[in-house]
Amino acid sequence: MSDDISFEDNAQASPKSVLIVEDDAPDLVLARKKVKSLWPDCVVMPVRSLKAVHKAYAKHKFDLVLLDLNLPDGFGPRTVEDIRKIDKNVPIIVVSGMVSDGTVSECLKLGANNVVPKSQLMGNDFFNILKQNFSG
How many CA atoms lie within 13 A of 132 on its CB side? Predict the structure, then answer.
């Protein structure tokens, strides 16, 4: 996956759009599958770095961000802060393999709406969290 920005659907055709910030291809596939199962017409834009997030936001505003904490150019809860600098209001759901009480607390303090372990990506709890946080 490259840092090139491309929508898989026409952004004008769907009122809902999700930015998935994930550099691990299998995790990206799982997250996209879950989003599309809930909102089949949703525009999903995958990016693999914080740099690509900036490029994506230069072209589009998103209704929801799914954010991994371990990226090539960002690591840990501070990635939440980086997204908040770009968009103060978008719901951010952190989806991470490194979920400890301290990580959850720091992510929430820095502006995340929810923190979900990657192991729960395909579970019903994640499905419910998506529905609760979608602003579109």
Answer: 10
Position 2 scores a pLDDT of 47
pLDDT in tens, 4-31: 444 444 444 446 899 999 999 999 999 9
Domains, the chain, in order of start with CATH, read 11-131 (3.40.50.2300)
Rounded distance between C-alpha atoms, residue 109 and residue 84, angstroms: 11
If you average pLDDT over every residue of the chain, what do you get? 88
Burial 65-84 (b: 16+ CB within 10 A, else e): bbbbbebeebebbebbbbbb
**Amino acid residing at 62:** F
Report the phi/psi class of residue 29: left, alpha or beta, with left for phi > 0 and alpha for psi in -120 to 50. alpha
